[in-house]
Amino acid sequence: MDAISSLMLQEGWRKGPWTALEDRLLTEYVQQYGEGSWNSVAKLTGLRRSGKSCRLRWVNYLRPDLKRGKITPDEETVILQLHAMLGNRWSAIARCLPGRTDNEIKNYWRTHFKKARPSRRAREQLLHQYQLQQQEQRRQYLQSLHLLHQHQHQQQHLQLLQQQSQQLMMSQQQSPPEPDHQAAVMAMVSNDDQQGSPASTAEHCTLPVPDDDDALLWDSLWKLVDGDGCGDGSSGGEY
DNA sequence: AAATGCGACAACCGCGTTCCC
DNA sequence: TGGGAACGCGGTTGTCGCATT
């Protein structure tokens, strides 16, 4: 125990499991002042807990958006895939599983998978599975880009036709087509442009979406997998 | 029924990073 | 720009409940 911790205990700071009253005080504090400034919780609520402890309790247990209950098979698959890719970057993994905390995922991993380390073949399969997913994502993205270009091309063609008909009508002393329609179509295109981007559908997830340059990254990953199996497993430390 | 083992999860600790003065 | 405070992260430990012996 360090000097600060022992000093805090001497001054009556609590440690260990949280009581219902402490939870209520902390929840009320966050409702009133928002998240952050954890060190001021004790001053403002009378709670005898360190800011660090308060933050942890809120983030891992009291936050209203937390998902309760068991990890689902789908979530387990995501955890396995991301861990195969990212290693023990629990917070990064947690960001891709809304409602789950890094602590929860870390505990789950250690309980379920730490001892039974997946075989090298299994890990290769997981990586391969993820790679296929990314390829499919990229294919869909390129397809949507292609469709968008087609759409824009059609719009240009339409505009050209409209211009030509307009010129024709002007030459014939007639009124031009309604500009509202044209504006509406253009608005649709620009709207599609914003909504159609795959990147916008995964804002909460900070995983990199592979691009052409990611071949290098994957090369490195495969090398890691290959290199991993040559030793006795003692290099990892985690397992 | 008591002792023991073990899984699950909450909480703590140390350290690195970021922020602010 | 340097230093301290605050924050965030990953590793570790503690505790509880259930199953097994």
TrEMBL record:
Region (Disordered): 161-181
Domain HTH myb-type: residue ranges: 14-62, 63-117
GO molecular function (one): sequence-specific DNA binding
Residue ranges constituting the Myb-like domain according to the UniProt record: 10-62, 63-113
Coiled-coil ranges (or none): none
SMART domains for the chain: SANT
Biased composition (Low complexity): 161-175
Places the protein is found: Nucleus
Signal peptide start-end: none
Keyword Repeat: yes
CDD domains associated with the record: SANT
Main location: nucleus
Protein's UniProt name: Uncharacterized protein
Source organism (scientific name): Panicum virgatum
